[in-house]
Amino acid sequence: MRAIVCGAGIAGTALAWHLERAGWDVEMVERAPAFREGGYMIDFYGPGLEAAGRMGLRPRLEEVRHPVHEIGYVDGSGRQTSRLAVKEGFAEVVSLLRGDLARVLAEQVRAPVRYGTTVAAVRQDDGGVEVELTDGTRHEADLLVGADGVHSRVRELVLGPEERFIRYLDHHVAAYVVEDEDLSRLVGPRYRMLTVPHLMAGAYAVGGNRLALLFLRHEPDPAVPADPAASLREHFGQLGWILPEVLGRCPQPPELYYDQVTQVEAPRWSSGRVVLLGDACQAVSLFAGHGASLAVAAAWVLAGELRTAASGDLSPALDRYAARMRPVVGDVQSFGRRFLPWMAPSSRLRITARDWLLRLASLPGADRLFMNSLSPGGHRLIT
């Protein structure tokens, strides 16, 4: 059996890991010009971490994790307004850079990646699928996997235009990494956030004198600005704390990640011998906090169903995969929509209420309840 996986991120490489060990021939293509380093900080836990453990990847994840000892908010002068200490017992939340998780997975995959390339056309019949790539080459396979993100080209080709599937959540998000020894030491192994109405900026030291930065802004217009770095400086540059300094060193894409905050709601996850995976069909939004976990879990589920499929007809296996994953994804998407307004509150009153909630969560016993509330579903996916 042969698969073409479009998208060499977390979901695509996790599936390639499984397919290779099941004896499949895997070819991978990725529209980015090279492997994407860094990115934003993620919390990897739940079914994805369970799957990674069974894949034998937990020791490697421990090497690249950046433990969070404290979550807290500061004001424009850097003064702490609320905090929650993260106890050592929360070892089942692995905090790391998105790019580091992708690399851990990619290290275990034999298939080379054809970078700077994506799918241009798809033709399929009962016997297989023919894929034309943007480099002009044609390839035949038993299965085409669209693991190419929220703006999936594969989804567009087989299911229709992007606007049919995207739910815009009225926010823009940005992230990048700077190297600065003094700022890295100042922030330390604590996730620090500054919020004013409709704006949130966060920072966390990730080793090697690096500082990971994250920005969230309420914006009714989904259009991404022509100069995203200038837009960040315009909206966040006067807020104080460390922001004027780090924004003065803000790069342009691709080093700067800038996008809409969106969710994907696709009525179908497959068509014939083409199947979607990861954010292409199940994007929960960055602020639902569960996307990477669900991507790795979905790869586990899809691979498991494919192992039981007859070579002549993959459709029943693809349908079972979607039926198992869809309810979990729906729950996490709903959680993300409820949680997002607390990340960039709309008023100072709401900011004050959030600070009090965080203080209450610091009380004995309440901290575990608070952390558990951030793990909305998928605990029985990995069987």
TrEMBL record:
InterPro entries, per the entry: FAD-bd, FAD/NAD-bd_sf, FAD_aromatic-hydroxylase
Domain FAD-binding: 3-189, 263-332
GO molecular function: FAD binding
Coiled-coil region(s): none
Protein name (database record): FAD-dependent oxidoreductase
Organism, scientific name: Microbispora bryophytorum
